[in-house]
Amino acid sequence: MQSLNAIQLREMVETKYFGNVDMKFLEATADCFDPDATFTIQTANLTHNGISEIRRMFNDFFSSYKKIWHGEFHHVIDIERQAVAVQFIATRDTFDGEHQRASNCNFFHFENGKIKTVRVYMSDENPLV
Predict the structure, then answer these.
(1) Are 21 and 90 in contact (CB under 8 A)?
(2) How far apart are the first and last CA of the chain?
(3) pLDDT tens-digit map of 93-119
(4) C-alpha dihedral over 94, 125, 22, 26, to 10 degrees?
(5) What span, in angstroms and rounded, lies between the C-alpha atoms of 128 and 1?
(6) Which of 34, 64, 70, 86 could join 114 in a cystine, given CB atoms 3.0 to 4.6 angstroms apart?
(7) Domains, the chain, ordered by start
């Protein structure tokens, strides 16, 4: 079983995951996930099961916004449990000019260097349907 160190866990969250989401790189984003991963938006009581559902969710999300950005990260990293909690700001610009801003918190669990589960808590309406 591959374990990630603290630097790798932080890089996985900030660069590989959020960085690819912000660039709307669907396959690179999907590659961050274990094939059997679950992606749960706790504040919407919604779970996407497996990479095909997660890929579809991101495809719809990417096509719905002109610009996506995540930053101002604050992490708590647990190397032993291969877990990362991260608080951050998320912004989205719609194609008709609306600017949306949220303060969110995600909880990631990794297995073999891939995201196995992510739980999302959003301060605004869920765009990840």
Answers:
(1) no
(2) 32
(3) 999 999 999 999 999 999 999 999 999
(4) -100
(5) 30
(6) 34
(7) 6-121 (3.10.450.50)
